[in-house]
Structure formats: structure tokens, C-alpha cells
Amino acid sequence: MTMEKVVAPESWVQGGEGTSRGALGAVDRNSWSPYGRHDKANQVLEILQNSARYGAVVIGPWGVGKTALARNIEKLLNPTTHVVRVFGSTTMTSIPYGPLSLLVAKLPTTALETPVGIIHGIADLLQSEANGKKVLLIIDDLPGLDVMSLGVIMHLVISGCVKILVMVRDLNNLPEDMLWLHKDGLLDQVQLEYFSRAEVAELISSATDSAISESAVTALHSASSGIPLVLKALFDEQVANGGIRHRRGVWVVTGPINLDPASALSEIVSSVLARENETVRVGVEKMALIRRAPLSIVISALGEDTAAQMEQRGFLKISSQKWRHTYLTHRYVADIVRGWLSAERKATLLAEISACASSELKALDGPEIMSMAAWSLDAGLVLAPEAALTAALEAVRNFDPGLALRCTAQIPPTHRLRIDAIQARSKAFRILADYQRALQELETVSEADQAELDLEDYCAWAASLCGALLWVDGGCVRIPGVLAAAHERITQVSESGSATHLSIRTAENTLRLAFFEQQIFRGDYAGAIEELESASEDDGDPGFALNCSALLVPAFAATGRELDAVALAKRVLGTVDSGRQGLCFADYCKDGMHNALTWSGLWRESVDLLRNELEGLSQLASYSGGLIELRLGLSYTYAGRGEEAVAVLLAATAQLEVREFRNSLPLAYSALAFAYAQINNETEALRHLALAEDATRPTLWTNDSMSLFFRWMAMRWLDDSQASHQLMDTAREDIAQKRYTIASMSIFGSTIHGSEKDYRLLEEVSLRRQGPMATISVLLAVSCQDRDAGKALEAAALAQELRLDAVESRCSVLALDLARDNGQHGQARMARERLAHLKEKLAVLPVSPANQQVKLTQRELQIAKLAKRGFGNRAIADRIGVSVRTVEGHLYQVYSKLGVTTRGELEQGVEL
């Protein structure tokens, strides 16, 4: 097997300069490495400053940034230390004094006569050049030290002339003398690892002085394996080709990370592979095509010896799971090498691989089926329709719409699986957020085609059509007609006796799921719950029952059964993870679970789950990452953590503006508006409110409801007098529809200055809910009705446990006002202590304590706050819907009560 057919740059063989586009020099490649290594740099400095140590040895794999760390140490020590760099090589060398040749060349001739003379000559030379400074000898790229050089270095170290900083990939590569120093505790070890996902985010943010979306972090970490050397080249390449863009001050990923084989990474891969023998290089070629397969297939395709060599050299990763899934350790190597291979070379290799893999197809899991389909298509092979459909469905399940579309293109338009292929294509376009195209794909099925379908296939197509119609303008009004036609078809078939009872039942359940989805989509939870609960216990059709359970989760979450929703969601998702059943409505289930956790006050559990999900995404994170980040931002927003919410939501919004998954932008804009209001940034809050008004899309009722809630809450925090009324109006509508969770939150938000009747309603509705937030709402309502400061403090304590700072502040303010009115000095002191602590966390309190000396009416307080923020009389009048004369009159009363005479005194000297 030869390498002539590989289309690779010259540096493949030479491992040298390379002239490929965007080639990076060593300094540029490593320019990001010092970021995020401050702890390691400090650790090395502490060791070097320890008089009981001879120095430090930094251990880490190729590309981890050892040399860059050494350069950083050199810069930090430069004022007080004379630094000398010595380079070994990755192979043992026999050239005497080779690494020290630059120092030896400076010695006088008399010093070169004996080894002892060279040792003392170098020692004197270093002391002379140091001119009184300490001397640090940096030894890079071991094990390449000859015996003579090692003798000189050991003398310099033991005599105290120098301290050493040794860079080595593995501890076993240290020369024996240095290894003994390490074992004796005279050389301390510092371990460097590749960057974790969190460190990649910190690295890019620090290096570019810009935030980065979680989706982009996941994609870059997956593609680079966290190798600093690769990450920098990869990031630059993706920015240059538009794969990563800068939006709203955030780096976002626009699609899968596609590596150009002529990019700067080509030079890196060439350099790495140039050190390997031909057997390993051919193995890398084959694995680049295989991508991922069970170990048995890999051994068949590569040979046991080759696989063993590749694993030993760090190219092959073998999982510990049942099928021992095997793949190249670094994905970027696979992508670059695959791009180098000519069509002829691919065909040759794939012919060998196919012969080995064909007998083991049953051992493949979903990603491996996708891998086999991808390399078959890359080689120009034709997939059998059954295999193409299987791979397409796996691609849809794993958020790879591009592969799904390529696979379905292999199914002829006359084949019996064509309708299944059309449905898979529609799902792929929904992942791409092209909802109009997703609908158009399904509409290509003509009436004649529909008539030829058997009952189950026809109803499956009709259900897919209903699901696609939900996401396009005017689509919902067409759904009843589609379902009616499908039910008529069932009736006809049933009466004709041309289908089995099982087939008819399957078709009916398919349509029932489509109808249930429509109900949940439009927020008709009360109308759906009873039937869904009954259907979720259908033992005769486990898949149907599971999907009904998934749709029950958002229904429970919105109707006051938040904890039931969480428990049900975990059971459903656990069933799917175990591989026992497929799930069509996973997004509904996850949405419902995270909403239930957040609405019930258990927002931190939601955050933990979402962060774990983000970290587990593949390089295809651009398709679903924006939605997961949005869910994360919503949790922070509901929890009143404005700063954290803004940071996450900006990234989510930027990602959704690239690809608006599930028509979620209006919700993102509204959540940002409320988050900005929480941190007292009125300009940005109003700007995003305007964006939310303009961005209307067909989306889940829950999304519309949350968007409306955030908009009115933002306005309420900005002292809009109509906001509380609007929140109460929407709450009454939700109560009528038995959406008690949503109604309770709206009432809670509207009752900053609520009446006793309002608080009675808050108590009644909140008693229909589950979870700690319901308890807080009841305690707050009771404290207002009974004028009980103790209940308000109890609510504040519970909010503190949940880390709901804004809620805690509101309960504490209420407790303070009630305790003052009741003359309860101890409780007033406790409330003041809470507020003093909260003022350090919150940019603005959602409600302020009443002025103890001066009693302003609600309207006077509202106008005084607006005037204090700089609003003119006309602006105040327009904002709260009264005349300018009314504003002037109220301001006169405010000035009189507060003892001020000008607006300037009000703005600067009075706390409201």
C-alpha cells in the first residue's frame, strides 16, 4: 500500500514549512495557549522559587501548549532571571553536545579540550551572561539528550548554577538521571491536559475579548479535541469561511464545522503523520473513512497489528461499552485526511473496508450506521433504499439534516419507501428551521399517491403534514380538514374489511397523536389532559402510550402539576435512553420538564440539566444549541438573575438569528427585555421589547405566553402603570382555561401594589399548584391579607433557599413594611438585614420599602420614580396615560411631602 494517491501538501513527507493557504508559524499556532493556563504558570513559578527544588518538569501530550507555557514563564521571569532554551528532539540523538551546540560554540578553545573543561566553561559562561541574575535552563522536547549534554546539565543543576524547566510528553521519556531527581522530590511535576469544554470557552473569550455561544463552544471543542494548537487554527479557519460569525458581540456557529483540507490544519496534520510509518498512515486513512465502528469491524478492516500500533501511538480511541466503539482520537485528523484522499483512493480503501464490514452490520449503532452511510456516499456508492432510509432516520434523530437529505436522495421516487423518505426529508428541513420547505416536501404527495398508500402509511403521512402545518402561517386552520379526511379513510377501510384490526388501531392512534399535538401546541391543556392520561396507560401500544406521556408533561407543567410533570418527564426520557422505545415528541417533553422545574422554583436543577445537555452535544450543535441556550436563559430570567440571563440570552439570540429553531426569536427578545429591566438597563429593555413586537411567528402557545409575560414584567419593572393590569387580565384568561401555573405567576407579578381581592385570588390559584414557588406565593398572599410580617419572612427564607433573589427581596420588603406598621422591631430588623444583603446582588429591587417618614400614594410614588429617572412631565404623562396637568399636580404633592423644591433635589437626594 503506497501513499502516492493521497492528495496532501508537501509537508506530509517533509513535516516542515508547508506553503498551504493560511499556514501558521509556531508562534502564531501557540498564541492562544497561555490563556487559561494562569494556574499552571503560577504553579511552575512557585516550584522554581522553592530553594529545596532543582526545578520542574511539565508533562503533557503533543499540542497541549508546553512550549507556549515555557514562553510565558520566560516572559514573567525575564526581569530577574537569565533564561536559556535548549531543544532536544522526539528521538534519541548521539551527537555529543548537540543540544548545547550554541553554548559550546561560545567557549574558548582551551575549554574544549576535555569534558570537564566544557562543563566548567559552560557554567562560567552562563554566570557571565546572567550578570548577577538567576539562571533558568528550559529543556524542550525530550527525550533527545545525548549523554554528554545530560552530564553538563546535571552538573549545572546539582551545583546550583541553574534551575531547570523540562518539557516532556511522558514521564518515562525523562533521562534516568532526571527521573531519579523527580523520584527524590527534587523535580516537581506539573501536568498539562488538553482544554476542557469550559476552558475552550474561557480561552476564546479571553483571546478575542468577546463572548461565545455554548453551541459554538461545543462545536469547536468537539472538532479540536481541546488541543490549543489545533483550536487556534480551527477558529481562524472557521471565521474566515463564515462557519463562525460574530453577532451581537457573540461568536456563533452557523453550521457543522467543515474543515478545508488545504487549511492551516493541513500543515499540523502533515507534521503529525510525517513522524509515523506507512502502516499507521494507511490505518489513519481507513479510519478517516470509517469514522466510527465496533472494534471487530475495525480490526477486520485494518488488521490487528495496525490497530494495536495506532492505539499505542494515540491515534485510535476504543470505548469500554459493549461493542467497543472505535474511532480516531482527534476528529480534525479524520476530516483533513478524508479531504486529502482522491476519489480513486477512496474507492480502493472503501472496497477493502466494505468487504470486512458487510458481515457485521447488526453490530452497528445509530452513529455508526450514519458513518457507514456517509463514507459510502463519499465514495460514490449507491445505498440500498432500506439502508438509506435507516441512515436518514438516524441522522434526523442525531440532528444531522445534511446527511438525512443525502440519504433520502438515494431512494427512487417510485420506490415503496418514497413516502417514508419524504417524511424524513420534511423532518430534516424542520431541523434546518426551514418550515415552509418542510411543508412543501409533504405536499409533493399527490392525491393519486395518497390513494395508493395503505392505511397506516397514509395516516402517518397525514400526521406528519399536521405537524408541519403547525409551524407555518395559516397552517393550523388546515389541520382539522387533514384529520377529517384521514378519519374518513379509516372509516372506509374499516367498512370494507380490507385492513386488520391492528392496522386500523395503529392508524387511529397515529391520528390521535397528531390531534393531541395540536391541542398541546395551542395551549388547550384542559381539553387534552384526561384523554392523554388514559392513552398513556395503553398497554397494547407502548410507543403510542410513551408519546402520549411526553405530551402530558407540558400539560401538567402549565396546569399546576409541576412536580408531576418533572417526574413523568424523567420516566419518559429514561425509557428512551434505555433504548426500549422511540420518542416523537422529545422536544415537548423536555420543554415541559424545564418549564416545570423553573416555574416551581427548582430552576437550578433545570440549569444543571441544560448545561449537561450542552456539554454532550456533538459538532452539530448549531442546529439545537440555540434552543437549549434559550431554555437556559429562561431559567435565569425567571429566577431574577438578570446579569446571568443577559449573558446567556445574548448568545442564544445570536444563535437563533442565524437559524431560528422552533420560531423562538420573539421569546428570546422578550426574555432579554425582562432581563435588561432586572439590571436597570432601560434602553436595551425597550429596544428588545420593540424587537419582540415586530417578530411574530407561529410557535407553541407556551412560548407565546412566556413572551407576553416577560414583556409585561419588563414594563412593570420600568414602572408602566398598565403592565399590572395586563398581567391580571391574562391571568384571568388562564384561570378560565385551568392553566393555574401560568395564572399564578402572572398574578404574583402583577400584585406589587395589589388589593386584598388580588391577594385572595393569588392564594386560591397558587393552592392549585405544586412545588416551593407555589408555597411562596401562598405565604405572600396570606401575609398581605392578614398583615402578617412573619409569613412574609417565611416566604423570604424559602426564596433564599431557592436562590430566587428578586422574589426574596419582594418578600423582605413586604415583611419590612408590615413589621413597621405592626411595631414589630425584631422582624423589621430581620427584613432590613435581608434587604441590605440583597442590594449587593440586585441592580434594582422589584419593589422598594415604603418611606417610613413620608407616605406617598401609589400614583405619587410611580410619578416620583419616573421623575427621579429623568423623565420629563410630558414623557411621564404619555407613559402612564394621564394629562400633563395631573403629573404636575402629583409632583407638587411629592415635593411637599419629601421637603424638596426642584427635580434635581428629587433625582439626587431622595431615596424612594
TrEMBL record:
Residues 849-912 form the HTH luxR-type domain. PROSITE patterns: HTH_LUXR_2. The keyword Metal-binding does not apply. It holds the Pfam family GerE. Keywords: DNA-binding, Transcription, Transcription regulation. Residues 1-24 are annotated as: Disordered. The keyword Calcium does not apply. InterPro entries: P-loop_NTPase (IPR027417), Sig_transdc_resp-reg_C-effctor (IPR016032), Tscrpt_reg_LuxR_C (IPR000792), WH-like_DNA-bd_sf (IPR036388). This is LuxR C-terminal-related transcriptional regulator. It comes from Arthrobacter cryoconiti.
